[in-house]
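Encode chain A's predicted structure.
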Amino acid sequence: MKKYLVLAGNIGAGKSTLVSLLAEKLDFAPYYEPVAENPFLKDFYADMRRWAFHSQVFFLTSRAKGHRDLMADPRSVVQDRSLYEDAEVFARNLHLQGAMGAEEWATYQELYRTLASILPPPDLVIYIRASASTLRQRIAKRGRDFEANIPDTYLQGLNALYEEWIQSFTLAPVLTIPGDRLDFVDDSRDLACIVNTVRRRLQDKQSLLFPYEM
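Encoded structure for chain A:
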């Protein structure tokens, strides 16, 4: 039977890496973040208040299209970030910062909730919880110039929204991985523990924290 996994987590948490590793170990098809260029992005960075709504609607539309495509894939799939995070974390953050006005935010939420209600939910969400210091180390390690100046306060703010979202998410079971303590890239034992836990969770579908958190 086909399974659908979502990898969730802040910038630098290791989502793409774990997607690749889980796809290999579980024989799932990996689906990474959409690569379509956002035509509003340049304008957004120049004037966030004017273009935040346009940019986020583009991202949400791309996520929904990717969601539809992966559900049409007959293989079991593991997805790098979902439309849920786009809305509940990143778009919400822009609204809280004042970049998206009340009416725009209400319209965006209505579109998001409509899409979320008609798209099939995942069988399991795997949330990588990591502190800002860990995120900073991993961001530096991968060496992307455009991420180099992301302030810790921004990462901490996103972390708070991630925690709020993950605590209220009810569409699928959630497996929380302690990213500060587990090295699934360089420690094969940690990776094996994650893979085995995911296998068990897909079989029993019961709510359960990752054992390392207990």
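The mean pLDDT is 88.
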